[in-house]
From TrEMBL:
Top-level taxonomic group: Bacteria
Gene3D superfamilies: 1.20.1260.10
Protein name (record): DUF2383 domain-containing protein
One Pfam family it belongs to: DUF2383
Species of origin: Pontibacter saemangeumensis
Coiled coil: none
Length: 151
């Protein structure tokens, strides 16, 4: 049977793959957008995501685990699909924002999956995951507002 530290490491390593997908997704969006305000927003989200990843990796290390710097296979496939889509249809702002909304909804699912293990996690980990999840929810709402403004 695993102890709380091992459970925390496993949950956080998996979660950090999704956070790293978030970083790559916003880098991709910043490269594609032609709107300077959107690019600035995406760059802010890249920094926020880097901060989240660093926080997760510090916590993993404090429990004796190895850093998680990789991304998910699904994220890689999605970014590849976005490249194909932008080549065929162009990189319009609405489709970039829609992709980011999808990515944030996916990130929230990853946070929820991590929180499904609350009984196995230290309170400090639960608090960190909840804080990051709330930030993701706020970002998703901002993206939805951005989408409405470009319609």
């Amino acid at each position: 049977m695993q102890n709380k530290n091992e459970n925390a490491v496993n949950v956080l390593q998996e979660l950090n793959q999704f956070v790293n997908d978030r970083i790559e997704g916003y880098k991709h969006a910043a490269d594609l957008t032609k709107n300077p305000a959107h690019r600035s927003f995406y760059n802010k989200l890249i920094q926020e995501s880097n901060d989240f990843s660093n926080e997760i990796n510090r916590t993993i290390g404090s429990f004796g685990g190895e850093r998680q710097d990789g991304t998910t296979a699904k994220g890689k496939i999605f970014r590849g699909w976005m490249d194909v889509k932008s080549t065929v249809t162009g990189s319009d702002e609405e489709s970039i924002i829609e992709s980011n909304i999808y990515g944030e909804e996916w990130a929230q699912k990853a946070y929820n999956d991590a929180l499904d293990h609350k009984a196995e996690l230290p309170q400090s980990v639960i608090s960190m995951v909840e804080k990051q999840k709330h930030a993701s929810e706020a970002t998703c709402e901002q993206l939805k507002q951005m989408k409405e403004s470009v319609d």
